[in-house]
């Protein structure tokens, strides 16, 4: 995929109770068959914007890395970032004028008294609190700010390629790839179980998974959290 020339793994696949060596994908019947590039274009028509993300991701992320080569997040709190639609509880100690709920708008900003619009999307609650504290220090004497997510908005992840239900799936934050694939209907009959990719824009990375390792409860594969805006592509 995307000019990738790395050697492919060749595990066994199970089909209909018989073990086969992974080889060329079976040909479709004559009715409704389209070459792979035409099927991908059809997917792009259905999910045009998300397919654009896939193409952009392919061009910018370079060669893929296997999931076991990606450093695991040291703390789940560091992967919990604010997304549009979240309702934040902002508490400025001893200042009820500024304290209160703030909904993250679709453009990613919240509006706060004294400092106006502040970009919240993509930041952790603690990171946003530090930023607000710095901004408010221009108007208040040594402000102390705390931010927590009061109501969570689900994240949006796109599933394309050889999955049963292409499109955008809403997931709880912290959801893993296996759970996301299950909500997308699972892999299609023609999927390559060894070629499942997560394409991420921030930071730009393309991570490869083996479905065999996902269902075998491989630690690295199942501890990898999906993030808002990820695109999952199955060959």
Can you characterise this structure?
- This protein is of the alpha+beta class and 235 residues long.
- It folds into 2 domains: 29-74 and 154-234, Outer membrane lipoprotein wza domain like (Outer membrane lipoprotein wza fold like, Roll), CATH 3.10.560; 84-151, wza like fold (2-Layer Sandwich).
- The protein is 23% helix and 26% strand.
- The protein contains 6 helices and 13 strands.
- The chain has helices at residues 36-46, 48-61, 125-136, 177-183, 211-215, 219-222, and strands spanning 12-15, 18-21, 65-66, 87-92, 100-103, 109-112, 116-119, 145-151, 155-161, 167-171, 196-200, 205-209, 231-234.
- The strands form 4 sheets. It has a 6-stranded mixed β-sheet with strand order 3-12-11-13-9-10, with helices on both faces.
- A hairpin with a 7-residue loop joins strand 4 and strand 5.
- Helix 1 (36-46) crosses helix 2 (48-61).
- The radius of gyration is 21 Å and the shape is elongated.
- It starts with 11 loop residues before the first strand and ends with a strand.
- Mean pLDDT is 77; it is low at 1-61.
Low-confidence stretches: 1-61
Report, as a whole number of angstroms, the end-to-end distance.
8 Å
**Rg:** 21 Å
CATH class assignment of the largest domain: Alpha Beta
What fraction of residues sit in β-strands?
A: 25-35%
Helix and strand content put the structural class at alpha+beta
- Biggest sheet, spatial arrangement of strands: 3-12-11-13-9-10
How many helices? The count is: 6
């Amino acid at each position: 995929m995307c000019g990738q020339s790395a050697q492919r793994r060749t595990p066994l696949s199970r089909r209909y109770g018989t073990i086969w060596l992974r080889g060329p994908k079976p040909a479709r019947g004559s009715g409704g068959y389209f070459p792979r590039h035409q099927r991908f274009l059809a997917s792009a028509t259905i999910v045009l914007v998300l397919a654009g993300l896939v193409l952009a991701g392919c061009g910018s992320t370079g060669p893929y890395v296997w999931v076991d080569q990606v450093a695991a997040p040291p703390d789940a709190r560091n992967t919990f970032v604010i997304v549009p639609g979240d309702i934040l509880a902002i508490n400025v100690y001893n200042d009820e004028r500024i304290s209160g709920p703030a909904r993250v708008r679709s453009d990613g900003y919240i509006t706060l008294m004294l400092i106006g619009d502040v970009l919240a999307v993509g930041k952790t609650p603690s990171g946003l609190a530090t930023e607000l504290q710095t901004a408010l220090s221009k108007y208040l004497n040594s402000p102390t700010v705390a931010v927590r997510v009061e109501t969570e908005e689900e994240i949006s992840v796109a599933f394309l390629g050889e999955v049963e239900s292409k499109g955008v799936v809403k997931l709880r934050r912290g959801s893993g790839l296996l759970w996301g694939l299950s909500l997308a209907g699972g892999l299609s009959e023609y999927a390559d179980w060894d070629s499942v990719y997560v394409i991420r824009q921030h930071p730009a990375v393309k991570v490869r998974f083996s479905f065999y390792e996902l269902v075998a409860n491989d630690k690295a594969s199942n501890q990898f959290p999906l993030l808002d805006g990820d695109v999952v592509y199955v060959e």
